[in-house]
Design goal:
Blueprint lengths: L19 H52 L7 H4 L5 E2 L2 H6 L18 E4 L6 E3 H8 L30 H5 L3
Antiparallel strand pairs: 1-2, 2-3
């Protein structure tokens, strides 16, 4: 038999209270949600810190390497050493000595009367003084043949027998 209908006007009984098992499940779901939110917040707070701590050694190593590279002198000559190289003013008689070179191989500009020039002793190539000095500050070899440029007071016993090398051998000194 069906239960008797309840009237909406009258003193019906209140709905039955939820069971304790359903309360526990509801509280368990809320507790799980709170724990998940705390874990997510903790993750997003710790992630930047952990990535910073992991990347810090790489950044420091890169900075040290860059400082070390800039603090070491270049492989070229210093300005004091460049002053020891011979120099002269270009004249028409000089051009007769070096008929093969009518222009500087660095700047590709021709030699003019009265310009300061340098003639490299090992290979005999002729350059403008300013052009060659800016080259020799970076590299200590001839820009054309890569022969090692020696200063007057250096010991040449190592390469004396091989003062003119091929381009490949000269690249070893770069």
């Amino acid at each position: 038999m069906p239960p008797p209908p309840q009237s909406s006007t009258g003193g019906g009984s209140p709905p039955p209270p939820p069971s304790s098992k359903s309360k526990e499940m509801f509280l368990s779901l809320i507790l799980k949600a709170v724990i998940m939110m705390l874990l997510i917040c903790f993750f997003f707070l710790i992630l930047p810190l952990a990535s910073f701590l992991l990347l810090l050694p790489l950044v420091l190593r890169h900075r040290r390497h860059r400082q070390r590279r800039h603090s070491h002198p270049s492989s070229g000559f210093s300005t004091k050493q460049l002053k020891k190289l011979s120099q002269f003013r270009f004249s028409q008689e000089t051009e007769g000595d070096n008929s093969e070179s009518d222009s500087c191989a660095i700047c590709l500009d021709g030699f003019r009367q009265g310009q300061w020039c340098r003639n490299l002793v090992g290979c005999g190539h002729l350059f403008h003084r300013k052009c060659l000095d800016s080259w020799l500050i970076k590299v200590t070899s001839c820009p054309i043949c890569r022969t090692r440029v020696w200063l007057e007071n250096e010991d040449r016993c190592i390469l004396d027998s091989d003062s003119r090398r091929t381009d490949f051998q000269g690249l070893l000194y770069l």
